[in-house]
Amino acid sequence: MSGLVVIGASYAGVQAAISAREAGYAEPIRIVSDEDMLPYQRPPLSKAYLLDGVAEDKLIIRGDKYFADKKIDLVLGEKAIRIDRTGKRVELQNKPALAFDRLVIATGSRARQLPSAAGLQNIFYLRSLADALALKAQLSTAAELVVIGGGFIGLEVAASAAKLGKKVTVIESTRRLIERALSPVLSEFLRDIHKNHNVTIRFSETVTGMTQNGAKAEIHCANGDKLNADLVLVGIGGIPNAEMAADAGISVQNGIMVDAFGVSDHSEVLAAGDCTSHFNALVKRNIRLESVQHAQDQAKSAGSAIAGKQVVYDAIPRFWSDQYDAKLQMVGLSEGHDAHAIRGSIADNKFSVFLFRDGKLVAIDSVNRPGDQLIGRRLIAGGAMLSPAQASDDSFDLKGLAGTLAPE
Amino acid sequence: MPKVTFIEFDDTVHTLDAEAGATMMETALQGGVTSIVAECGGACSCATCHVYVDDAWVSRLAPKSDEEEDQLDSAFDVRPNSRLSCQIKVTEELDGLVLRTPSYQGR
Ligand SMILES: Cc1cc2nc3c(=O)[nH]c(=O)nc-3n(C[C@H](O)[C@H](O)[C@H](O)COP(=O)(O)OP(=O)(O)OC[C@H]3O[C@@H](n4cnc5c(N)ncnc54)[C@H](O)[C@@H]3O)c2cc1C
Ligand code: FES
User: Fold this and answer.
1) Which residues, at least 6 apart from A40, have a Cβ–Cβ distance to it below 8 Å?
2) DSSP label at A84?
3) Which of A135, A142, A128 has its CA nearest to residue A59?
4) Cβ A297–B75 below 8 Å, yes or no?
5) How close B100 gets to chain A, by Cα (Å)?
6) pLDDT 10s digits, A79-137
7) For A25, which of A20, A87, A118, B23 could close a Cys bridge (C-beta 3.0–4.6 Å)?
8) Domains assigned to chain A
């Protein structure tokens, strides 16, 4: 037996391998990664890592010994360059090809590039530890920072840089922050906390071009303004690393298309994490998610499926972000919500926004109120009958209501 | 090096060398304690590093911050001796500490 080959050794790839082993898969498992590092935590890269001296080795998720114990071979620093699906082999850049019975593609996503930034100095993207190392080094001497894109990564870097005393400007093309994923209440809250930390956000603004101005980058805005920066962080979204799969004849549409078990349209090939697109029952369409929870939970299903165990992936999506003193946590998908209710106090920085669509609770965005999140997950999963009035009434017993639902 | 013991909900026992300055969560991940998930990487934002502290040790740990207290609220099967392992720093004094993991890490 050739066993399992996994491409990508981050949250999804590692979890798929572990889950396969835990479900009893006894064949060889090899995980190929084009990074040299052992699997590491990415979320801190835009947060704590930029601020204090979080040592790189503290970011490592699981050590060598762990993989050895589980009989999982890591092939680090090696890029997979082609999938020979019919020949059941993955070709590597330098080493001999790896034969497989089953393949898991967990190649994640990469930062979308800004064409006008090509060839300039001091332009940074943030995806990997190598990116973060370079960013951190430049940040130590930079005084003026421009962040292009007011998404999570951009705003987290803006917050970290502001905390370090840098002058920060964020350029956002839409009229509010993280429009696609956040409720307007939360967008406004974020805008305000950034403002309170002297971060300038330019809304409805686009970058028309960039030039090198000595050691600085000059950013040309559509309204004619020019901004100078010692460091430009571009955070304009991610692109799934799915080209290799598409070239192998696997169905790809904004990500590798997988079913509820992480299986692609070719049963020997599975995929999980940022590189996939799956049908989500909450919004009743295919979506691609970029979060640790999604990567791990989807990979659990994929890994289990490889061992012959069917574990449906239907977890309610959740995400978090830290900016200044605000712990943001989100559960559910707020897309298309038509009503909302606030529980707690915005003035005290402790509140949750309950979001409803067609009278049903679909998502909760919380700031410094983690307690609402787990209950919320159960309420959303169980299709609880909750009204906006009840949600905003702090004396209404949400735990009690959650208790009446079948367990998740 | 202090030694700490993790007993998983399925009774798997891991006695690990813990490095002073690291967190119990990091120690658990490195040592292969599978039922510590640590989705947020120690940011006190996920409660998937939940542990139960052996009774003899509860009062010997540094107390919980408000942040930890709040986040623990969102964990599954919280008990008086519940802690988030990412918020417990390893010190020499914790040699012999015993931590148990719940059957479900909020996931
Ligand atoms: C700065 C930053 C902050 C974030 N903050 C949060 C947060 O607060 N909360 C949250 O939930 N999520 C956050 N995320 C998102 C989260 O990290 C991702 O969703 C998660 O890492 C996805 O895991 P993955 O395994 O699917 O892919 P990735 O983590 O992207 O890993 C894919 C791996 O595959 C490798 N690879 C790709 N192609 C090949 C190839 N051909 N051959 C070999 N190896 C290959 C890549 O180099 C990479 O190591 C953040 C991401 C970043 C970058
Ligand atoms: S690792 Fe997330 S709360 Fe401890």
Assistant:
1) A56, A59, A60, A61, A129
2) E
3) A128
4) no
5) 19
6) 999 999 999 999 999 999 999 999 999 999 999 999 999 989 999 999 999 999 999 99
7) A20
8) 4-110+238-306 (3.50.50.60), 113-234 (3.50.50.60), 325-403 (3.30.390.30)
pLDDT beyond 60 at A407: no
Convert the pLDDT of each residue in A332-387 to its tens digit: 999 999 999 999 999 999 999 999 999 999 999 999 998 898 888 889 998 888 99
Beta bridge partners of A218: A211, A228
CA–CA separation, A312 vs A308, rounded Å? 12
**HSE-CB for A208 with a 13 A CA cutoff:** 8
Tell me the two tokens of residue A398.
Answer: 């949400």
How many other CB atoms are there within 10 angstroms of residue B103's CB atom? 10
Q: CA-to-CA distance for A123 and A141, rounded, in angstroms? A: 14
pLDDT, mean over chain A: 94
**Interchain CB distance below 8 Å, A296 and B37:** yes
Give me the pLDDT at residue A57, please: 82
Tell me the pTM.
0.94
Ligand 1 contact via A241 beta carbon (within 6 Å): yes
Give strand ranges (E) for A1-85. Answer: 4-7, 29-32, 72-75, 80-84
- How high is the ipTM of this complex? 0.85
Chain A CB contacts of B76 under 8 Å are 374
What was the pLDDT predicted at B107? 46
Q: What does the alpha-carbon distance between residue A191 and residue A193 come to, in Å, rounded to a whole number? A: 6
For the B3-100 domain, the top CATH level (class) is alpha beta
CA angle at A327 for the pair A42 and A122, rounded to the nearest 5°: 45
Question: Which residues 6+ apart lie within 8 Å of B65 measured at CB?
Answer: B44, B87
A406: pLDDT strictly greater than 80: no
Partnered with residue A329 across adjacent β-strands are: A320, A366
- Distances in Å between the Cα of A53 and the Cα atoms of A48, A136, A273 are 8, 10, 29
Distance CA(A144)–CA(A360), nearest Å, equals: 45
Asked whether residue B81 carries a pLDDT value surpassing 50, the answer given is yes
Give the strand pairing for A109-111 and A216-221: unpaired
Query: Can you tell me the distance from the alpha carbon of B78 to that of B51, in angstroms, rounded to the nearest whole number?
Result: 9
Q: Are A332 and A380 in contact (CB under 8 A)?
A: yes
Which chain B positions have a beta carbon within 8 Å of A315's beta carbon? 107
Q: What is the pLDDT of residues B1-47, one digit of tens each?
A: 899 999 999 999 999 999 988 899 999 998 889 889 898 888 888 88
Interface test with B, best of A57, A71, A292 (most B CBs within 10 A): A292
